[in-house]
Fold this sequence. Notes:
Elements: H1 3-15, H2 18-59, H3 67-75, H4 82-94, H5 98-115, H6 118-121, H7 129-155, H8 162-190, H9 198-228, H10 238-311, H11 325-335, E1 345-351, H12 354-361, H13 363-378, E2 386-389, E3 394-399, H14 405-419, E4 423-425, E5 428-430, E6 434-440, H15 450-465, E7 470-472, H16 475-497, E8 500-509, E9 515-526, E10 529-531, H17 533-543, H18 546-564, E11 573-577, H19 580-583, H20 586-598, E12 606-611, H21 618-633, E13 637-643, H22 649-655, E14 660-663, H23 675-690, E15 694-698, H24 703-711, E16 716-718, H25 728-739, H26 745-748, H27 751-754
Amino acid sequence: MHIRGWLTGLIVFLLAPCLLFASLWFHSKFEDVNSIDRSLAGLNLIQALGPLMQEKALTGTVKQPTDMLVRQLADFDVSGREQSLVAELGGFMSEQSIPDALRKARSLASSIAQHSRLSSSSSFETSEFPHLINDTLLSVVIETSVMVNNGEMLSDKDAINTWDKMLVPVQGGQFKVAADNVSRATKEYFKDLEGPKAELLRDKAAAYRSANLAYQSAGAKLLSSTIKGNTGSDIANDQLNEVQPDFVRVIFNLWQESVDYLHADLQHQRAETMFAVALAGLVGGLVIFAAFAIAVALSRALADRTQQEFENLGFHDPLTGLPNRRALLKTLRGLSDRETPSRIGLVILDLRHFKKINDLFGDQSGDGILRDVAERLVQFAGAEDFLCRTGGTEFMLLRPDLTDSASFEDIPAKIIHELGRERQIEGQKLVLESNAGLLISNTGDPVTDQVLVDAELALRSAKQKAPRKVERFTAEMRIAFEENGEIAKHLLRAMNNGDIVPWFQPQVDVHTDEVIGAEALVRWLDHQTIRFPGYFLPAAVEAGYMDRIEAIVRQKTLELASEFTGKTRRTVHFGLNISADLLSNASAVGALHRHVLEAGLDPSMISLEILEAVMIDEDKATPIKENIAHLSDLGFFIELDDFGTGHSSISSLRDLKIDRVKIDRSFVSGVDTNKDLQKFTSALINLAKSLDISVLAEGVETSGEREWLARNGCDVIQGFLVSKAVPEVELAAMILKKNFTVQPKRYFDEKSAIA
């Protein structure tokens, strides 16, 4: 066989291009340094903009000279956009309105950060800083300025109308969301920082939280006086005007310290990269020289090894060149035969929504991304690690001899961060989202194929949480998986036997106590046990039974609704909880309408309960809002659930025809005794009533809560004070007792049994 001779020549031939490859590597590293320098230049521009924004926020004018900043912007290389940045600065300087000027400054800072690729250069530790500096903190400053302007505008008015009263709680809610987001984010995110100035940054964040509480207290007085006031003289905005400048200074102190921390991190990355280049140049030259000397000597051993590789081609993935699942199983079985037991670590990674990438850019681009992912994963693998591609978008990293579990636990998050860096595909921005599962065995545990199953259970758990999440395997995951599998088998039998039914929680008029609606909630009648959704819905989701369960609840609810059509003094709305999947599907919306008509019902009898959360993402919300508008045009009673807890309340009321809002229990529990809660709940009720929208309060449990809601404009209540969810027979009994004029035949014969 001539393979030895061929390999000798091939090795010598291939070693020569190592110089070229080394040159390319050096070029890549110097490009990294250039990228960091560009980000530092952009950060310096943003830092120079900070004092100007602070002066504008505090005084309304900017007296500091800006000639140097204008020249720096003009010299900043942003592919012909230099004059655009200068124009944005001019717009900020000339804008008279403080909030509008600050918005323009925020836009300028974001443009600089985008052109300097600040997010791409940030390390894993500082990955959140660009967003904090260029958006989150500046948004709080803007909202404080808007709140002060609103207070001054109202205090100058002779009379305050309903829309004026709505202005402060709506904008105040926007401020509270922005300010509290900063408090939560800095408290959670800053606690893990380890840089030299991390403690100082945490002190600045603590000072911000303290100032935020003082400002919100002053804002509450403005809110209370607006709700109760009738003229501008009733507006209490003096304290707000007094504390606002100090709060702005505290915000910019935190902003400046965050900029300094990010700047130091970028400088540290640059120094490390330059050191790596110098060291690699020295070591690489020695290695290449030595490689030429020993290449021929190694050819014999390489020939034998290559022959074996030919025999093992079935153990590799042809697309990425990594070992495949078959090779991983072979490696695991080899580990099980070791005489000295040791711990193993396993990371399983899966890319999310990859089919959309193939559909958008084509399979060829998708294959290129998978190869790039494989190359990036190599940098996280140690010399003894086993890295492989086990499925379409699934990769695994096995560490057969794990000694430092803490370091290994950090690997999944670092991989997800690295893969999540922004990339360009055919001129379009693309960010890969992924999830990871982590498994670390105990010393002496047998190494079998079961570890792959356990790692995949951890990955499944991470996917259920959110994108970019990592979960470590626990025994409880396997128990839950096995339990869900067992539950799913019994659940299928229950659906076939008719044991999955809706129960109904009544909704009553807060003034007359008449039943005017009922919300359908699914139950499992398991012999003598009533199973609630929390017990079986997770298993139903895993088994793919949710569509069938929703269809059962919908069909039985429509049958019950038809029994009461035209027979009550007031219309009884039967409520169905509608999922985002149904609302995003125009054909499913049409099918729902047909089912209602086939049941002999007018759509106005059916209340469609829609969660605010399905409309948070503006892009995804557009088709959903279109379908909701279509359902409203068809005559359905549209109800916005959990009103006040989401981010889309105002836009939902503005863009959609909402018949009723359901105030979340968090705004109801204890409202009769909690003065601060009363302000926000009153504001929500008044907002809806001013737009002629009915109000339902859910989770009402005490007479005090009911009386307060009745006095303050609420129309309908639902909760344990009225009734828990009950079978349809008990619901019928309540309706028969309270508001039937004509008894439906189906329940007439049963009246004696259920009265």
